[in-house]
Design a protein that fits this description.
The chain is built from 20 helices and 7 strands. Helix 3 packs antiparallel against helix 16 and helix 16 packs across helix 17. It is 46% helix and 8% strand. The N and C termini lie far apart (61 Å). This is AAA family ATPase.
Length: 429
């Protein structure tokens, strides 16, 4: 551990490697796929497979680097107060809930919000995988007679049902998949529980928590957090918006969404509040806004940082100076299209600046060009690709481009980049 580190000697933190700076993290996260030389000599059937490699293109944005800093702070801080060489750590990990005091300071939490396709999940996944190891083997460990495995992080999706029992199953299955490389029976730890005909979600969550605590899980990432809530139908959202129209301060049509099972949310918050594990919650605006509708919960899920992933705009420097100049290089035709303002406007019109859609449109336009068989990429290929390959996504893109809340509200997981637009809707005409 560096002499500059504030953490001193802590074997849990040592396995994470040195604290990264933003430049190093940017290099770790960036990925540029390779492109074959002399593309004109490559058959279209083979080019298609090279083209699909573009799906792995990753250029970390400024917000992603901020997320990396937040997650690194959260995980190291969580280990700081769980130093296994300190006797108090073990008494707190083995304590009975509501009987003995928890850690003096709750572990940190990080929240990420953004429309589908803006890169939240990809960002967290790449950041967590940038650590040297997810599983850290300790040949000797305090209070242990044999080797011990530390699990630095775990990432799962909240099941679509939002039920406690399904969340418990996902955690157990995710844990066993993560520790499979360790062997020694760890990968089968929850087999008996998962095989039971009659299961209790509450008991399963407690069992998982005991195992996670004993293996010093550093950070738990729960993606698709909106699945905890019962989303309103379009008619219900419109009724709620009509009933709150004109009421001062009411600008969130998803505030107070009913939760599927209250115990699931309470248990998730207890992971950080009582058991010292850092927490990262990510999801679309409907779920995160529902969490934030209660002040105490909103505070708890963002003690380390709250990060909003937004769509690109035509004037966004991260698009004009970073993303677009790299994207334009990946052309799989002998006669590439010219980079100009008209192309930028077309890309924005057909994708609303959503990073995932920009990549998808670029790939689809090439596939359209391949059909023409003249080895040229043209502007009209993008419109044709949008109306064919990407047709199912176009209504949502049109809604976002319009900026009209009445069109956007048709899609339960969308939210305009300008969140304040809802304030205007809530005001009387």
């Amino acid at each position: 551990m560096s002499d500059l580190s504030p953490y001193g000697d802590n074997l849990l933190i040592d396995g994470l490697g040195p604290i990264p700076n933003r430049q190093d993290m940017g290099r770790r996260l960036c990925h540029l796929p390779s492109c074959p030389p002399n593309i004109a000599s490559v058959p279209y059937s083979v080019r298609l497979h090279w083209l699909m490699m573009l799906r792995h293109l990753h250029l970390p944005r400024r917000e992603e680097l901020r997320v990396a800093e937040s997650l690194d702070v959260a995980i190291r801080q969580s280990y700081h107060q769980r130093n296994p060489t300190e006797p108090g750590t073990w008494s707190k990990l083995c304590r009975e809930p509501l009987v003995q005091p928890a850690f003096s300071l709750p572990a940190g939490a990080v929240s990420l919000v953004g429309n589908s396709g803006t890169g939240k999940t990809e960002a967290v996944t790449r950041i967590l995988r940038s650590y040297p190891q997810q599983l850290i083997r300790h040949e000797t460990f305090p209070k242990m007679k044999t080797e011990h495995w530390q699990v630095a992080w775990l990432s799962i999706c909240v099941p679509p049902s939002g039920r406690t029992i399904d969340l418990a199953r996902a955690l157990m299955e995710g844990w066993q998949n993560a520790v499979r490389a360790a062997g020694g029976g760890l990968e089968n730890r929850f087999d008996a529980t998962l095989a039971r005909e009659r299961q209790s979600g509450h008991k399963m969550l407690d069992e998982w928590r005991q195992v996670a605590c004993s293996h010093f899980l550093g950070l738990l990432h729960l993606d698709e957090i909106q699945n905890l809530f019962k989303l309103l139908t379009l008619e219900q959202r419109r009724k709620r918006q009509t009933s709150t129209s004109g009421k001062r301060g009411v600008s969130n049509p998803w505030a107070g969404l009913p939760i599927v099972e209250d115990h699931a949310l309470k248990w998730i918050l207890s992971v950080a509040n009582e058991w010292g594990m850092a927490l990262c919650l990510s999801g679309t605006p409907d779920g995160i806004r529902a969490l934030q509708s209660r002040s105490s919960t909103g505070q708890r899920i963002s003690t380390i940082g709250h990060h909003a992933f937004k769509c690109f705009s035509a004037t966004d420097k991260e698009f004009t100076e970073v993303f677009f100049p790299h994207l334009i290089r990946f052309q799989y035709v002998a006669n590439p299209i010219e980079a100009n303002d008209e192309l930028v406007r077309t890309l924005m019109r057909l994708t609303a600046g959503i990073p995932r859609m920009l990549i998808a449109l670029w790939i689809a336009a090439h596939r359209t060009a391949f059909e023409r068989n003249d080895d040229t990429l043209r502007l009209q290929d993008f419109d044709q690709a949008a109306s064919s390959f990407l047709a199912p996504a176009m209504p949502a893109i049109a809604a976002l481009n319009s900026g009209d809340p009445r069109l956007i509200e048709r899609f339960e997981d969308l939210w305009p980049d300008n969140f304040d637009v809802w304030e205007a809707v809530a005001q009387p005409a």
